[in-house]
Amino acid sequence: MEALFTAFAALPGLKVLSLVSLGLWGPLPQTIGNLSSLEMLNLSSNNLNGTIPVEMLGLRNLQTIVLDHNKFTGEVPFWISSFSGLTVLSLKNNSLNGLLPSSFSRLGNLRILQLSMNNFNGEVPDLSNLTNLQVLDLGNNSLGPKFPTLHNKLVTLVLKRNKFRFGMTHNLSSFYQLQKLDVSSNEFVEPFLPSLLSLPSIGYLSIAGNKFHGMLLKNMSCGADIKYVDLSFNYLTGDLPACLKLGNKSQIVHYRGNCLSNGRQRQHPYAFCHNEALAVRISPQRRKENEPSSKIVVAMSIVGATSLAGLMVLGVGFVFSKHAFKKPRTRVILEKAKVLYPSKLFLDAREICQMAKLGPLGLPAYRNFLLDEIKEATANFDVSNLIGEGSYGQVYKGILGNDNMVAIRCLKVRKRRGIQAYTHDVELLSKLRHIHLVSALGHCFEYNSEDSTVSTIYLVFEFVPNGTLRDFISGQKPIWSKRIAVAVEVAKGIQFLQTGMMPGLYSNNLKTTNVLLDHSLHVKLNSYNLPLLAENKNKVNMLSSSGSKEVSKPIVKQDDKSDVYDFGVILLEIIAGREITSDNDVSVMKDLFEVGIKADKIARKQILDPAVHKECPDNSVKTVMEVCVKSLSEDPNDRPSIEDVLWNLHFAAQVQDLGQGDSPSRKSSSPVFTSQ
Q1: What pLDDT band is residue 361 in, cutting at 50, 70 and 90?
Q2: What residues form the membrane-spanning segments (predicted)?
Q3: Residue 477 and residue 536 in one domain
């Protein structure tokens, strides 16, 4: 490390230093202070440790500091405010501790402050002077109990899994730019302010796992952009607002564990929330020092109140026993052995947030779910949770006991067999773990009561919230560089399906409607040719969203080249920015691309989606068109491998980044294309 940073110091004009995921370890050397011209420093996802060195004071021009996902310890240094031009400070997922420095208030240019998943405690300093701050993430610490003082221009505010207790509702009513608010899993005991639902920009609101109380009304209004609301496990009464239960499949609403009268998700009786709300409103009595007997009186009062409360809880528990929430046991499936897994791992928020305990993708271990868990997650397969229905059965959205969102696919078994017959299928399913796949989290078998054969199989996948690639292309009209990035991610997902598992999965029937996008708009493939799915596929005629028959690819002998053909159709939509819904569409667009490749750059850009044709280097466009046309070849032998597809797409991305013509490093012919 010392030699590395000494070498960097020999570059007097160095402004950006990004060393991400390189396996660097040890403390930051003192020589880092010699990089005086540095404006951006990103050392995330390494194994760096020790304290943040004071020698960084020499980096007076720093505007961005990103040290996420390392092992830094100690406190955030008070001298951090010396970086007057700092706009981004991100120290997520380290082992930093202590109080947050009050000097934060002097970082007037700060736009993003992310300190989640550390060990900070105590009160948050006054941040109301940070008028440019848009993103504040302090989740997964021990901060509180007072809600922080903030400026009302925030766009994202995440305070989940801390110890905040009071002062929230009166502070947020004027935050008109707020799009995301997450204060879940804290200790708030105050009335819930319904106007949070109607903030003009709000799209994501979670107050789950607190003690908010108050009454909701059916005629309350909601913001026009609200897509996700979680009110679960509080003491809310009244009626669920009509604006939260209109059956909108793009809107996710959770409200179980309250005392609402008109909801479908499981609720407590009214008395439960009423009594608990009364309890949290009682102010603790202060003992006067000149009244020595008061200690005895208060103690007797507490004992009496505890006894009475115990009787009340027993009574409420008896009434509510039929509807009580079950804490199901969780089991990890390892071939033939069934190992009990402590439920605390899935319920303890602090353990869940640690990526190392949940695998490289931050997902829980693949496991066997209980049928009660599946029913609880979907409110007994309530129609409001149905998000899809097709040739592979129905798909429901659900929320598990650890508050994780999931998608659950229900397969009705036509050929009933015993559980042992599905061992190979389950093993293959458990391997579906990749950054560009909708990963499998587990399964559940429902048995026939008469002969103990499997009658229904429930497959549990991670939930991907941001819609399909087709919606993304037609709605947001992404820029050209983003379209290339999406194409690369689709290809990487296909490559993993074919080569990342044994045996590989081929002929996966990929199209833009089953390529999904996550919170960060990264690709997740949602279509696999699993034997388990193929065996139970319903014989129905699949239609696209437009009502047209889906594209049917030519019959091929090489299964890996079938996926490449599908990828070619996806590229057609990415390039042209329009839906491809029939074989005729494919044929027409392919012919048009072939002409465009041989024509000049003006003709090529006329083929592009008008939303992007002005910004694209011609060589980048031509390369992607070539990939597309080759992938759609009638003869599978003429189609490139998925590795060759990736090579050429990376070249197209490089040309785009350079913003110029052909790169000297590229030969006249690539592994896929020959000069014509």
Answers
A1: low
A2: 296-321
A3: yes
Helix runs in 467-558, H state only: 469-475, 480-499, 531-535
Q: What stretches of 211-269 adopt beta strand conformation (E)?
A: 213-216, 228-230, 235-238, 252-254, 259-260
Of the pLDDT bands very low, low, confident and very high (cuts 50, 70, 90), residue 33 is confident
Residue 244 CA to residue 222 CA, distance in Å, equals 8
Q: Give the tokens for residue 106.
A: 């002097």
Cα distance between residue 140 and residue 355, in whole Å: 13
Summarised one tens digit per residue, pLDDT across range 153-205 is 899 999 999 999 988 866 677 788 899 999 999 999 988 888 888 888 899 99
- The CA distances from residue 52 to 72, 89, 108, in Å, are 7, 13, 22
Domain extent for 78:
1-157
Residues 441, 462: Cα–Cα separation, whole Å:
7
β partners of residue 583:
none
Find the helix or strand (DSSP H, E) in which 444 lies. strand 440-447
Q: Check pLDDT > 90 for residue 286.
A: no
Give Dmax (Cα) for the chain: 100
Distances (CA, A) of 104 to 70, 127, 182: 22, 7, 22
- Tell me the pLDDT of the chain averaged across its residues: 79
Distance (Å) of CA 107 to CA 93, 98, 264, 667: 22, 20, 47, 50
State which of 462, 481, 503 marks the end of a domain: 462
Residue 435 and residue 499 in one domain: no
